[in-house]
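Please, structure for the following, as tokens.
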Amino acid sequence: MMTKFRSILLLIILAAAATVEAQKPSATPKPHSPTVRAVVIVRPGPPPAKLSPDKERRLRAFNQAWGTINSQYFDQTFGGLNWTSVREEYLPRVRAAATDAEVHEIILEMVNRLNKSHFGLVPPEYYTRLRVARREARAREKLASGRPADEKEAVVDDGDDEGLDELEQAAPAHYGVGINIRVISGRFVITSVNAGSAAADAGVKPGFILDKINGVSMTDLAQKLIAGSAHVRHFDRFLPTLITGWILNSEHDSKVQLTCLDAADAPQVFEIKRRPLAGESVTLGMSTPPMFFEYESHLAAPDVGYVKFNVFAWQVLGKFCDSITEFADKKAVIIDLRGNVGGLIFAMEGLSAMLNDRKLSLGTAVYRSGPVPLAVDAKKRNFKGRVIFLVDDQSMSASELLSAGLQDTGRALIVGQRTAGEALPAVTVRLATGAVLLYPIANYIAPSGKTIEGSGVEPDYSVPLDRKTLLTGSDPQLERAIALAQDDAGFEKLSERRLKADAAAKLEKPADLSEEDAPPPPKPMPKPATVAGSRPQPPPRAALKLSAPRAGNVVPPVPIVGKDPRAVRILADFAAAVGGPAAVRTYDATGFMQLNYGEGSVRVRYRTYRSEPDKFVVVINTDAMGEMREVHVGKDVFVDSNTGIADSIKPGDIGPGRHYLASLFDLTSPEYFKALKFEGEYEAEGKRLQVVNALTSDGTSIAMTFDPVAKTLERVAVTGIGSTVTYSDYRKTAGFMLPYKMLIGGYVDIELNSLTINQPIDPSMFEKKQNCFDKP
């Protein structure tokens, strides 16, 4: 994912849509066009009669998948396929399918006819297995620490997962043997053994052939895995990474038997107990399974730093900044991307910004409606020495974009083997069956004009792996990189490449790829309704910042004068019932915020706190994007984040402009209204409700709905627009009756799980936070 936000709704796309690889929300073309959407809903004939609920769900999932590709896939020619005919071809099989799994296979078969990377489908059963595994691990941890745990605790939720997305509840493998494998001459060869790992202590050596796992031959295992993934494009290419993550590693500290062929091709059997891996579980997006993030940093030579990590998660930014701080006086840094499967593009951009002292082009993302330049500004802290990347055929996606971008612009030398050529920005969508479909939304073009998809990044120095060299205990690719770090001639040529790239960027940049001429960003979805009061434009100031009115939902304002005594009494009863919110001097609230967009939604962690005078903070936190804070201190507003993307977030993108209880403060103040009128009562959801129309002190007409029994406010809307803010789940808290739920305009749904009233707030919470890379 990319970094440049324009509104909170772009954050929705970032956090909820998929993120295994990349997109640029700020400049991504509008994902839906009315013309294309019309094609999606047209059916050539009447639907089959009396479909069962299961079959209806499967048909809906298939239509979702087909329609999503139809409207959002970057290639409008579909590679020469008639996409409408493709749908008609598969529909009979979908209608006849007896299980969800059959439909998932059909969907995979269909999308893989486009022959592009970043198409994939994760069935819902996968999430269930991961969730159970995590709970089992927690139970084992309790037993190990002496805390009581019975057999049921392994599968019973202990409450830690409450409110989290099912993917956040899962955990990847945390135990492993400590080896890496690659296919060399058709055999699975161990290319490295981690120092101090279980495999190293058992006597496993680089260059050994991994022949069997738990008695199953690697040949048979590979064939079974490939046969079971018939519709996964290039599945065989990813076998080394998949076998390591799926089979060699585990969620438990269990034993595994490895049968290896040594230097003399004699079989050696190793019984190895898996050990904890050095790393942490990370989530690249709420629609993708969690991954295990590993990071390594040390000196490869007295004057050469070395960094290796396996995925571009946001956590890499702080760690990498610490590494370049340590290596600041070193001649070079080697960044090992071998086996790096990609990840979040904003993390890749942030890392590249720490390797440059100027604005840099990483290439172009070509979306359905046109090209968007990928430009990165330098971070204040950046490494000024030589940069070398190590890559191989397991380097994918974001790792390919980074190496291609810095290779073409003359910033880095590339050593190793051609990369995988799996380099398309992609997002996800959840289907009606619960499966998650990954699909590409753009093509990537390197600064040189080369297409990386399908071809990969060609190293400056090709260094193949061979078993004979590995058996000596050496790493020929790393050794070549260390030697190159000292090679002045090689970097003099690289400097010439950089000068040419700088000149091309300034003088020869095609007009159609310039910042000014790039296609406009997508039109924003209707802004979520937010509670009134800051500095709305234009005057008169509105009581609510609301989304655009929906067709057929516009009610003309009703002129009112004076203050109806019954309306005044209803508002007084409300103020008395809630306890006078204006007496709430400070609060600290935590919970979740659900952001709704289109047909999807995403749930993020939410926190907001307020202190006197008018100071408040809104915090959004996700596993994929880290923490973002919008801080209001009087009239001053700033945004910061622990991922380095704050410069691209505008004030108002995260917070509503006013604090959580501001609207209640207004509505319990008699001075807030010029006129009030009681409009009557009506029945809804089994209870009687009262309606009051009002004219606020700034001339805005609003309508309020009250529960006369509970004396609480349920809804407030700007008259004539029809968008609303709804309050519910009032709870007695520190003597006040306050709402724990608030739905703003149907787009933002806030649900608190804790609310602390009138307790001191740490003043540092209102100060700007600096990251390592924000400091020179």
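The chain is about 25% helix and 30% strand. The longest strand covers residues 600-611.
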